[in-house]
Amino acid sequence: MGHKDYLFQKRLALRFPMDSFRFDFRGNHESGGKRTQGGFAKDVEDLVTVVSYLRNIYGYEIDVVVGHSRGSVVGMYWLCTSEEGQRAHAMINVSGRYRMHRIYDIAETYKEQWAAKGYYERTVTVARQAVVERIYPQDLEEFSQWNTAIVWDKFPNQIDVLTMHGLVDKTVPTYDAVIYSRALGARTPGTHSLHLIEEADHNFTNRQDEVVDCILEWWDALNQGRLKTGILMTGVRGKL
C-alpha cells in the first residue's frame, strides 16, 4: 500500500517542468472506498475518473503518465485501452510488475492464517498511520490474472517509455523490467529506455533524488530528440 506523496513522486512534481496531478487509488490514504489486493480494474476506473475530471474541469490533456509498482501497471493498462492514452507522449515506469503470477512467491506467508481464518491480516504503515489490511485467497488469484501482456500489442507506438528498476528489488523481480524492455523496445517512433540502479530496493530507499535526477535527464533527452531505444545513457562513462 502506498500514497500519492510517498517515495519520489512529490519531489518529482516539484521539479518537473509541467503541471502535474497526484492521487490515491480508492481505499488508500486520503481516498475513500475499499482497496483489495487484486482490484486493478477498480484502480483503472479511478484513473479514468481522474483523467475525466482534469479534462472537464481544467481542460487538461494527459501528456505523461508516471507510476511506481502498482501505479505503473495501472498506468500502462490505461494507455493501452483509452482514447486519451492514444494521445499521450511519455510513460515513466518505476518498479513495474509484469509477471503477475509471481505474487504467489509470498503466498506461503499467508497460508497459516488462510487455513485458520480464511484471510491473512497484516498491519502496514501508510503516511505514518497504521492500516490493517486483510488479504483473501481470491485476492491473489485476481491479482495473478491481471493482463500485463496487453503492452505487447496495444501499447501506443508513439509513446516514449522510461523503465527504472532497482537491482535488489525483493518485491518485484528486476527481470520484469527486462520483459518490459523487450515488449516496448520494438515500437517506432516511440522509444524505450531501461535504467537499472545498483543496490536499490523496490522503493528506492534513500535514493529518491537519484530517481528524480534520472527522470529529468531522460526527459531532457526526449525533448532534445536524443533518445534511442536501449540502455539509458549508453555511451556515457559514469561513476564507478
What does this structure look like?
The chain has 240 residues and is an alpha/beta fold. It has eight helices and seven strands. It has helices at residues 9-15, 40-58, 70-81, 107-117, 137-144, 150-154, 175-184, 208-223; strands spanning 64-68, 90-94, 120-126, 129-135, 160-166, 192-197, 230-231. The strands form two sheets. Strands 1-2-5-6-7 form a five-stranded parallel β-sheet, sandwiched between helices. α1 packs across α8 and α2 crosses α3. The chain is globular and about 60 Å long. The two termini are 34 Å apart. The relative contact order is 0.14. The mean pLDDT is 90.
Provide the fold topology.
Blueprint: H1 9-15, H2 40-58, E1 64-68, H3 70-81, E2 90-94, H4 107-117, E3 120-126, E4 129-135, H5 137-144, H6 150-154, E5 160-166, H7 175-184, E6 192-197, H8 208-223, E7 230-231
Parallel strand pairs: 1-2, 2-5, 5-6, 6-7
Antiparallel strand pairs: 3-4
Helix pairs in contact: 1-8, 2-3
Characterize the biggest β-sheet.
Answer: 5 strands, parallel
Helix content: 25-40%
- Count of DSSP E strands? 7
Radius of gyration: 18 Å
Distance between the termini: 34 Å
Strand order of the largest sheet: 1-2-5-6-7
Report the sheet-strand fraction.
Answer: 15-25%
The overall pLDDT average reads: 90
**Tally of helical runs:** 8
Uncertain segments = none
What structural category arises from helix and sheet content? Answer: alpha/beta
State the order of secondary-structure elements, H for helix, E for strand.
HHEHEHEEHHEHEHE
Report the principal-axis shape.
Answer: globular
